[in-house]
Write a structure and sequence with these properties.
- Helices cover about 50% and strands about 15% of the residues.
- By secondary structure, the protein is an alpha/beta fold.
- Helix 1 (about 10-25) packs parallel to helix 6 and helix 3 runs parallel beside helix 4.
Length: about 150
């Protein structure tokens, strides 16, 4: 139904980037209908209100609980695999039976790695943040490209 993206810092920017690719199009020479996609990182009024009143750890899980439904997908970015707000987002997605996909670094002992279903996590074999984030972008583009190829064949 819809794709929700979340992450912190550079991963927040990646969330916005990929939400735009899905809602608009990755390849403008191959137009397609847009997909419902939103970055949970963009509503500064909500983020600052929630963080001020309840703390930063729940900024994504609260949005998922408010707008998420079965049939949706949550895509989470965490280079370390230990972001508490990303872990809470995954917990909330699982609670609501919402599919999720995690992009992270090579730390297979991280809190996200321990909690996630192994089929729902993509590890970048690096502990160097810039490398991890660049590979996340490449993987995200490749996945979107393949979805567009499938969509254009219909």
């Amino acid at each position: 139904n819809k794709i929700m993206f979340c992450g912190n810092g550079g991963s927040a920017a990646e969330s916005q980037h990929m939400a735009a690719e899905y809602a608009a199009t990755l390849d403008s020479k191959r137009p397609r209908d847009g997909y419902a996609a939103i970055a949970l990182t963009t509503d500064t009024s909500f983020i600052t209100a929630w963080s001020n009143d309840f703390g930063f750890d729940g900024i994504f899980s609260r949005q998922i609980s408010s707008i998420g439904n079965q049939g949706d997908l949550v895509i989470c970015y965490s280079t370390s695999g230990n972001s508490k707000n990303i872990l809470k987002a995954v917990i909330q997605a699982k609670k609501q039976k919402i599919n999720y996909l995690i992009f992270t670094g090579s730390n297979k002992k991280s809190s996200l790695a321990k909690f996630s279903d192994k089929k729902n996590i993509l590890y970048v074999p690096s502990s160097h943040t810039p490398i991890i984030q660049e590979v996340h972008t490449m993987l995200g583009h490749d996945i979107c490209y393949n979805i567009e190829q499938f969509t254009n064949k219909k």
